[in-house]
């Protein structure tokens, strides 16, 4: 009680006597936009903590001491606990004399995160779960958490990476990506975005932007525009309060009845090949299409607009709306020749 009185504690998690806030090298996110922050009293700490001289040898694990504290050692390994070359992402391991031997009274977590040194099978080392890569200058570059990765259509990706690209859209103020499972049991990504003040942002424009920026497996299955994100009392996004997204009624800003005959024909061909409902905002490969089903679609489209339409062209225009435009151009070309 005397300490609480001396340091003016009025809340269990903070003290009025705090004069400066030191922010480590971690994603600041919505904290940066808080109107309650006195920026004259916030310090951003960019202190270098490690710059070891890593060796490129994929046959074993090579530990390098941190110049900041030689009692700490670092290594970057792949799933087989072998060293990765410079520039290749892997998991960060931490070792050294100051590493503890496990979690207190938690043997399961200890077995998961504390393993024998892969190089010597000796002292325990800590599996951080951090995905990093070694840059050419020896610096470690953080690429998110391994446990944040999800597999979409056979490709590993991180929702944070998709959020970053969404946030680069000129009209997007903030973005959030969630993981869902569709009616077929496939893992998908959904996105929520908040527009910048005065912007005329829409799900369709953001979806088109994403298709131009990222591979098909990183394109969200659905994007919903919100006025603001629901926050809990700690200032973090309350996922339980996010509006549900109906995956089969997503982004129908252009109604089917407004699509011309060419568009309806293409949608019918793609839908039949995939056995799925298709709308303008969809992408063939994001819906589960593969090279075999793509060939079937191309054959049907050639019956519609002629043999000039190629499989390469299909791969370059796998978005349904873009595909319809390409088919329409080919049909107009055929009519001109006639």
Give a description of the structure:
- Helix content is 25%, strand content 22%.
- It is extended.
- The protein is built from 8 helices and 13 strands.
- The strands form 4 sheets. Strands 3, 4, 5, 6, 7 and 8 form a 6-stranded antiparallel beta sheet that branches.
- β9 and β10 (155-157) form a beta hairpin.
- The protein is an alpha+beta fold and 338 residues long.
- It folds into 3 domains: 64-146, Roll (Luciferase, domain 3); 155-241, GMP Synthetase, Chain A, domain 3 (2-Layer Sandwich), CATH 3.30.300.30; 256-337, ACP-like (Non-ribosomal Peptide Synthetase Peptidyl Carrier Protein, Chain A, Orthogonal Bundle), CATH 1.10.1200.10.
- α5 (261-274) crosses α8.
- The model is unreliable at 44-59 and 248-255 (pLDDT under 50).
């Amino acid at each position: 009680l005397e300490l609480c009185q001396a340091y003016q504690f009025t809340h269990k998690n903070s003290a009025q006597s705090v004069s400066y806030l030191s922010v480590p090298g971690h994603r600041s996110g919505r904290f940066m936009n808080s109107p309650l922050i006195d920026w004259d009293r916030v310090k951003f700490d960019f202190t270098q903590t490690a710059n070891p001289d890593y060796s490129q040898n994929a046959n074993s694990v090579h530990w390098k001491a941190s110049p900041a504290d030689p009692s700490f050692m670092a290594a970057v390994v792949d799933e087989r606990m072998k060293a990765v070359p410079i520039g290749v992402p892997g998991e960060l391991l931490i070792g050294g004399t100051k590493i503890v031997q496990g979690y207190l009274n938690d043997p399961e977590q200890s077995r998961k995160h504390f393993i024998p040194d892969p190089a010597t099978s000796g002292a325990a080392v800590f599996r951080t779960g951090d995905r990093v890569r070694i840059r050419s200058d020896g610096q470690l570059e953080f690429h998110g958490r391994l446990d944040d990765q999800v597999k979409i259509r056979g490709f590993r990706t991180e929702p944070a990476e998709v959020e970053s690209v969404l946030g680069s859209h000129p009209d997007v103020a903030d973005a959030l990506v969630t993981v869902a499972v569709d009616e077929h049991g496939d893992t998908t990504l959904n996105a929520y975005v908040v527009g910048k003040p005065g912007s005329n942002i829409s799900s369709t424009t953001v979806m088109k932007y994403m298709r131009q920026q990222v591979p098909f497996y990183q394109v969200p299955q659905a994007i919903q525009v919100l006025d603001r994100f629901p926050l809990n009392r700690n200032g973090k996004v309350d996922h339980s309060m996010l509006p549900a997204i109906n995956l089969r009624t997503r982004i129908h800003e252009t109604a089917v009845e407004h699509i011309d005959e060419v568009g309806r024909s293409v949608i019918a061909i793609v839908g039949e090949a995939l056995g799925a409902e298709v709308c303008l905002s969809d992408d063939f490969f994001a819906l589960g299409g593969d090279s075999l089903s793509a060939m079937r679609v191309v054959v049907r489209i050639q019956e519609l607009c002629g043999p000039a339409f190629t499989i390469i062209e299909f791969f370059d225009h796998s978005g349904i709306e873009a595909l319809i435009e390409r088919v329409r151009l080919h049909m107009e070309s055929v009519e001109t020749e006639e």
